[in-house]
Specification:
By secondary structure, this protein is mainly beta. Strands 2-12-9-4-5-6 form a six-stranded mixed β-sheet, with no helix packed on it. It has a four-stranded antiparallel β-sheet with strand order 1-3-8-7, with no helix packed on it. The protein is globular and about 40 Å long. Strand 7 and strand 8 form a beta hairpin.
Length: 120
């Protein structure tokens, strides 16, 4: 079964850095583009970054360009998000997912996410 386990989030002061990890299992990880999303209370998940299957093409939301870096290690079935110069507006629960929807009981599957709070 597809499983996505995010980790690395915590409380950090503005200007600080964090490195998030997402360990994937249950599918051929290297065949899929992977994404990081961010969700705040009362809002939909917003796409933060993407990385193609080979790891040589990335895209970022305008709000994080120049500060965040997405990467992947296909030997470890893991996608990372390096976050530098964090701002309060980066606060949210961060999720990873793949380019296709995994449906379970009629809803898209998501991991538990990892919360990031940027506050002084």
């Amino acid at each position: 079964q597809v499983q996505l386990v995010e980790s690395g989030g915590e409380l950090v002061q503005p200007g600080g850095s964090l490195r998030l990890s997402c360990v994937a299992s249950g599918f051929d990880f290297e065949r899929y583009t992977m994404y990081w999303y961010r969700q705040t209370p009362g809002k939909e998940r917003d796409l933060v970054a993407s990385i193609n299957r080979d790891g040589d093409r990335t895209n970022y939301a305008d709000s994080v360009k120049g500060r965040f870096t997405i990467s992947r290690d296909n030997t470890k079935n893991t996608v990372y998000l390096q976050m530098n110069n964090l701002k309060p507006e980066d606060t949210g629960v961060y999720y990873c997912n793949l380019e296709i929807r995994i449906i379970r009981d009629g809803v898209q599957y998501w991991g538990e996410g990892t919360p990031v709070t940027v506050s002084s």
